[in-house]
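Cross-posting from the modeling subforum.

Setting up a comparison between two proteins and wanted a second pair of eyes on the formatting. Protein 1 (sequence, then structure tokens):
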Amino acid sequence: MTTILRDIVGKATKKIPNGKNLFDLMFKERNYGIGNKFSRKTWRHWGDSSYWTVTRVVPTTILPAQNRGKAWGKLTWRGVTDTEETEIRGVHKREWRQVNQDAKLSSTSASQDMSPKTTTTETASPPTTDTTAKV
């Protein structure tokens, strides 16, 4: 009886993976996400200054449901970008996210909108009235 119960409970509490691996994110993008920036969730405390910029992807997918392959890119770590292209490690770990460049652009434009604007006021001469109107 206990083995049957253990089998039922064990199947019910099977761990379901959370998050997305790098290929889950890249295969949804156009051109396999080349040129996009991806970061691991464990790098969050460094903000968006640490990420990979994908430069090359070689998918080895035989079945459409399997997202597998190799990826290369340039690592930007705390704002310093490597010059060499290296293979991205840990691509199958389910802790990847896409770095949102639109949020950065909108936050900078919003901060610029909040800055005090200087306006130049030109002193206009009062309109002159023509007293010699032609009838």
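Protein 2 (same layout):
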Amino acid sequence: RQLPAMNKIVKGGIASAAVGLAFLATTRQAKAKENKSQPKSAIVIGGGIIGISTAFQLARRGVQVTVVESNSSISSVASYKNGAILCQSMAASWASATVIAKNPGELKTMKVGLNAWLDPNFYKWAAWFWWNSLVPGLASYNHESQRQLAWYSLRCMEEEMAEMGDEVEMNKTAVETIKLFHDQGEMDDFLASDQANFWKEKGYEFSPLSVKECLELEPTLASPSEASGGLDNHDLVGGVRCSVDSSGDIYTYTCNLAKVAEKLGVTILCDKQVRKLEAMEGAVTGVTLDSGEQLTADVFVIAAGVASPQLGRQVGVNLPVYPLKGHMATVRPREGRAPLTRNIYSPKHGLVSPLSPDSLRIAGMVEAVGFDYTVEPDKGQMVMEKMEGLFEAGYMDMDRAEYHSCLRPVCGDDVAIIGQTHLDNLYVNTGHGSKGWTFSWGSAMLLAQIIMKEQPGIESQRFSP
């Protein structure tokens, strides 16, 4: 009578052992799969604000990161000097027929140089740009993508600053942005726009300002009755203010973040040109440098700004990004004049941002001139002279201005490309255009979340390659 019971015990023991072994095997497989999906090493191509930010976020997650930068130092091209503004409230896609029609400046007067006319890639980019500008619904979708990334990046920036403080110092200066209007109808339309409603819902409402209030907030602005410069303020009708924005020095920040990243184990290789990306069986196997040296890693990130499309093409990845050139002037107020405390954007005059203790960074102009990296002081001077009439007569010490020019990587829909390509271990973070500084925090965080299989902080499909 005990044999059947013993038989059950034996059978039960065997069954239990089988279940246990199956569970153990499943657990090991799950762990192996998890380990495989969690990269231990990464190569980030590009040492600008986007590449360094991406390396930092991956290093915080325990990834051993190597940054490969073609120039002799990091943050030396578009991340060396830019417009300085952190422009969350102004986030919108350039690829919009409405934006182009209503903006009297940059895009409407964009110069296309011979280098671009002779470049087939410019025509491909332009076709994608106009497709997104004209097809109903696309511009609105792209505007919303810009706003979502701006909001997410703002949150990431604030968290980083609260945690790290002076380690990531950036000379944050402007207290907010004032956008000026020279047409009452345009001002009314803006206050009722999706852009204004978006930031109102986030707690950063645009406040309308009369001309008097604009001048009280920034007394250095020229009044409508004052003739100053070639483009004066005679038709100024008012403005709007938004406290979400600020300004800072992109070069200072990028260099400080790089130091923090190096403490986390990031290796930064400068003066190293990537000659070729090697791929096999649906994955990148390594990169070959001009020196012949080969580097390998579990994952690879293209964050090389305007050089990103050429790298992508080597392995069959299409990145519709093209360089658009901008020009900057850094100038000081004349001795005894009050400093500017806010970013000022006037579609008529351009954009100016303060940098402590007493500098003004003026940015403007859009040119498609191919890969012309030349710094052109004469064009920087034109940008500054256009801004002259915004201020009271003689405000800027224009004789002592410094100039810079850079190429901005603009995607055909003017929405950044962030995510995984069709190759299993190749990712991209590029195409931010004029807003790379503003979007850098959110872009790096989002890509790190995608690479590490974390829950993305925003809708990642909006930015997928």
